[in-house]
Structures are given as C-alpha cells and as structure tokens.
User: Which sequence fits this backbone?
C-alpha cells in the first residue's frame, strides 16, 4: 500500500465517485472538493451508494473561487489533482452559457493556477470531452482530429483542454488531458439519455408510467462504463511524461439501439412506449461520435472492459432495484 494523496474536484459526481473508490482501493488518501449545498444529505448520494462516503476527506469550496482552491491545495499538498468538476450537461449549457463558461472553462484554469501557485510538482488531470469534436471532422476521432465544438459546454471544455496543454508547455506542469467519450453507469445523472432510458424502463416495467419521451433517437455515441474510464485517468497521471489521450470503446451505437436493448432486457418493446418530443432536441446537435483509443491502448495498456450490453443490463437492473426500493414495491 502506498500513502499517496489525491485531490478530486467533482468528487460527488459519477466519475468522482468511481475514481475515489478506485484510488482508495490502491491505498490512496482521497480528498475532494465539495460545493456547499443546502441539501448536503443528497449531494453525497453517489459516494454512499459505493459505500465510501466516510472514507473521503471533503473540503468546502467551489471551482469559481481561486483563493479557496489555493488554500485547500496548500493544506492538502496532494501528489495528484483530478479536475472532474464541471457544469457537465450539454443541454443546460444553452440555458446557462456563462455559468458553463465560468465553471467548466475558467474553473479548470483556476485549478491549474492553484496548482501552479500552491504545488507545481503535483500531477494534474483534466476531464476533457469528446464533445470537443462536435461537428466531426473525421469519421473516427483520435488525438489528432481537429476540434469543432457545437455547444457552450464544448467550447468551455475546449478552453480548459488548451489551457491544460498550455500549462504543460509553458510551466512544465505534469498536466494531462483525457478526451473521454461518453461513459455511463448506474450513477450517471438522470438527465443524460442513458440513465433517462434505464430509469424510464424501470418505471414502465413496474407499472409507474406508460410513456418515455426522448429527443433525437438517431444520434450515435461511443458509450463505455465509467468504472473502466477512471482507470485510464489514473494511468495517464502515472506516466513519466504528461500527454493527451482519447478514451473510448471504438464502437458507436444509436440512441435508438441503446433504448431497444434496455427495453428488451426488461421484456418490453420500445415501440409501445417511446415517443419523440421536440423539447428534447438541441439547437445544434452532435450527430455522431466514434473514438479511436489506439494511443491509450499502446501507451497506457488501457482498454474498455465492459460491453454495451453489459452496461445496459447493469443500469436497468440497478434502476429496477432503486425504483422498487423508493416506491416500497
Ligand atoms: P457529473 O455531472 O456527474 O459531476 C460533476 C461534478 O462537478 C459534481 O461533483 C458537481 O458537484 C461538481 N461541480 C459542478 N459545479 C461545480 C462548481 N462550481 N464547483 C465545484 N464543483 C462543481 O459529471 P461526470 O462525473 O459524469 O463527469 C466528470 C467530468 O468529466 C466532468 O467534467 C464532465 O464534463 C467530464 N466528462 C464526462 C463525460 C461523461 O460521459 N460522463 C464525458 C467526457 C467528459 P454537485 O454534486 O454539487 O453538483
Ligand atoms: P451528451 O453526449 O453529453 O450530450 O450526452 P446526453 O446523454 O445528454 O446526450 C446524448 C445524445 O442523446 C445527444 O445526441 C442527445 O441529443 C440525444 N438524446 C435523445 N433524446 C435525449 C433525451 O431525452 N435526453 C438527453 N439528455 N439526450 C437525448
């Protein structure tokens, strides 16, 4: 067991929870940034779900508050910082473009600044996104594919990505950017299409609702499991030289097919339940994302382990259990 200290922003999110569990199992002391909420009991629900809430040291703070970030890093002195915090929902970024810019873009610059000032030897990981490829410039996207962001979220992530590259090149920080394609799990936020579908399937199966309204069923994504993807983050940080990596499964599937698998697993036919509602369409769509994870495989020895069908089954089963428990069924 080593006694390394890791500091995670976004520790209460999907990836923060899985990464914390992964690092605890590796013997790390895990610290996380917690943005204050009047609903503190709800905020830690993912960490509780994984049974690790009491194993993490939480520090009050916000990605938009630079002096607070500097103070907490001076106090914790982590060996590794993982910047996972963001306003992460693409659709909301059109409703809150400036907040998204402040948190998802400038927030990352704040963390980089705090590392540079408080602990420049600390290794840094930035949670970049395949959304930066947006209107794709190549059918399969790698680290060399030009970017074309299609939302305020993607534009903010692109700024954070280039700041990470720039701080590596300007100040010699060990700063890596993981360009992660969509990754899901039972802990995915309910507003994202995969969880919305598996939660809807569970409610329909248990007789609590009849219909599920979705947006663009033809959009295609390269979906993996968050549990697999957090390992790639850690591997990047362990390399002698910091760099940027695409993390993906290398397979792309439509929302319609994801939906079909989820309904089928519950013994249902999506045609009987799914409708398209314009409210869930986007001002500018990312029609297809398809990653090429060759560099991650060759340099990190990383590969996605969970198949799409295994992911769908795990999510549907977890939602069935959650809905039964919540509804006392
Ligand atoms: P989540 O939305 O589940 O988690 C986001 C986290 O950021 C939460 O802990 C949230 O806190 C925190 N946060 C939001 N605003 C602030 C703020 N102002 N100050 C401090 N913390 C804040 O995201 P995921 O876990 O799914 O994703 C992790 C990161 O990876 C994100 O940056 C996301 O954009 C990026 N990413 C995700 C992909 C995916 O498919 N999941 C794909 C590519 C990139 P709270 O709990 O209080 O809301
Ligand atoms: P994103 O790739 O980060 O935007 O992740 P989402 O899960 O939010 O969306 C993935 C794709 O599913 C996008 O192309 C959406 O347009 C599409 N989609 C179709 N219906 C829905 C829906 O009801 N909700 C969400 N969130 N996305 C939907």
Assistant:
């Amino acid at each position: 067991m080593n006694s390394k200290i890791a500091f995670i922003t976004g520790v209460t999110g999907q990836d923060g929870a899985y990464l914390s569990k992964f690092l605890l199992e590796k013997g790390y002391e895990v610290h996380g940034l917690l943005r204050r909420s009047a609903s503190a009991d709800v905020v830690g629900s993912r960490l509780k779900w994984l049974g690790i809430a009491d194993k993490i040291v939480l520090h009050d703070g916000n990605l938009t508050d630079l002096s607070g970030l500097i103070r907490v890093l001076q106090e914790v002195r982590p060996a590794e910082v993982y910047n996972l915090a963001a306003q992460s929902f693409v659709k909301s970024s059109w409703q809150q473009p400036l907040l998204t810019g402040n948190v998802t873009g400038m927030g990352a610059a704040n963390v980089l600044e705090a590392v540079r000032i408080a602990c420049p030897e600390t290794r840094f990981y930035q949670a970049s996104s395949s959304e930066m490829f947006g209107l794709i410039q190549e059918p399969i996207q790698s680290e060399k594919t030009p970017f074309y962001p299609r939302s305020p979220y993607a534009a903010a992530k692109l700024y954070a990505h280039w700041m990470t590259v720039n701080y590596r090149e300007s100040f010699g920080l060990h700063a890596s950017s993981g360009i992660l394609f969509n990754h899901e799990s039972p802990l995915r936020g309910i507003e994202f299409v995969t969880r919305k579908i598996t939660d809807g399937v569970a409610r329909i199966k248990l007789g609590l609702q009849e219909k599920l309204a979705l947006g663009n069923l033809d959009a295609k994504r390269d979906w993996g499991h968050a549990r697999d993807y957090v390992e790639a983050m850690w591997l990047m940080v362990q390399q002698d030289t910091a760099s940027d990596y695409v993390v993906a499964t290398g397979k792309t599937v439509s929302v319609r097919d994801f939906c079909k698998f989820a309904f089928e697993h519950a013994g249902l036919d999506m045609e009987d339940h799914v409708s398209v509602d314009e409210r869930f369409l986007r001002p500018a769509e990312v029609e297809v994302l398809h990653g090429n994870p060759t560099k991650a495989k060759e340099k990190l020895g990383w590969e996605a382990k969970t198949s799409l069908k295994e992911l769908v089954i795990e999510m549907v089963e977890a939602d069935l259990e959650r809905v039964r428990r919540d509804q006392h069924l």
Summary: DSSP finds twelve helices and 13 strands in the chain. The pocket of NDP (ligand 1) is lined by residues 9-16, 33, 35, 37, 43, 62-64, 84-88, 103, 127, 129, 180, 182-183, 189 (CB under 6 Å).
